[in-house]
């Protein structure tokens, strides 16, 4: 009799709790009131779909208050504050078409007076719940920005003087555990240490739970999720990239592969298969030092700029990519996510790595008005895993920085710029651009170039529609090292894409004009001083 009474009370309490829960987006997420069989818990069903194939799924569920556990049967889950949970399945390919359903549950402390509720859900960086309200904005214009120099103690790690680190062997594990019961608990302090656990949660599934989407769970272990991080909700006034106003797809992440820790800087393991406007297609791993910077803006991730990996822990990019428009303020490091080994702009292969930012080091003499010293160093939160798809580029030799020695030579740039139809390139493309003399560049468009050219930048391009265009800011211009094997050359970073000429009354650059490039060779000493700290 007592047992029956306890069951009745528990059932009543569960029904009372779930009955009070209302979804902020009923077409995407619903509280499941039928399958709850434990106190201090509610179940939910998430319905996700896409109009374009997604390689890798990254779901973030935001609760309005802390929960003890958010569990699911789809992928590993992580959190730091127990309010924002990330669910990542790097191997899952979500095909365009009918949506799939993902079931999860939330356990909470019975002593709490309020029940944690879903506040927001994102899929691969895009808010899907509630549906974002778009506010019409003015036509975007060219943003030129200034950054304040950081304090001298902004970066701390030891590095070799040749411009790249000794390669570490540490790597994040993406293995899924099911029946093993191990737990590693880290603090949820300001250091954002991630709490992880692989203890299987003993949740009694109904037959409906076991059968639904069986083909989607057949290759995955059932496990209790981990706990992970998320960023601030407030949006800075930040540079959103050259074509942020027409982007609509966001990134996810993938596991590592093809490790090659002994790789030399500036070398390529993958041979080329057969930005940038009228550029040539590249192949994965052909330019392993090129990185993509994404900015978190209005609860979404948007492609912002390119960059160049120069060590296991440092990326070089343009200063205007990491500063607020028309100010001297460096943006919050939590706003930028760095992707390495990326080939397709809107989807990911298994070689893609992602890193958060530890700090920005903007050149202290950066001038926003004229883009003088348009260069910045990004220190990554943790070293990358060097492999066939992610490798650093070599810095330029300090003994040979004479600009006249490279005039007329071809420099290679890569990126996801516009193609000849005005469409954003979906895959990484490259263009070989001749470096032109300052005099030739000035006389091609004196009113424009006379404002920006000085002794630490230069011009490159053909003026024939083959140019670095919108979306390629911050990417590197590389040349083969003098004397290296032409069949397997060593590549050195000579320039950083800084500025292009805008088309009349348009929001895109003019590919018939030269591109202004920051001369990275003039900053090698400054770069090495920072990355060796």
Automatic annotation (TrEMBL):
Residues 276-532 form the Peptidase S1 domain. Residues 181-198 have a biased composition (Low complexity). Keywords: Disulfide bond, Hydrolase, Protease, Secreted, Serine protease, Signal, Zymogen. GO terms for molecular function: serine-type peptidase activity. It holds the Pfam family GD_N. GO terms for biological process: proteolysis. It is found in: Secreted. GO terms for cellular component: extracellular region. Residues 165-177 have a biased composition (Polar residues). The keyword Disulfide bond applies. Residues 1-19 form the signal peptide. Gene3D superfamilies: Trypsin-like serine proteases. Residues 148-235 are annotated as: Disordered. It comes from the Eukaryota. The keyword Protein transport does not apply. CDD domains: Tryp_SPc. This is Peptidase S1 domain-containing protein. It comes from Hypothenemus hampei (Coffee berry borer). The lineage of its organism: Eukaryota, Metazoa, Ecdysozoa, Arthropoda, Hexapoda.
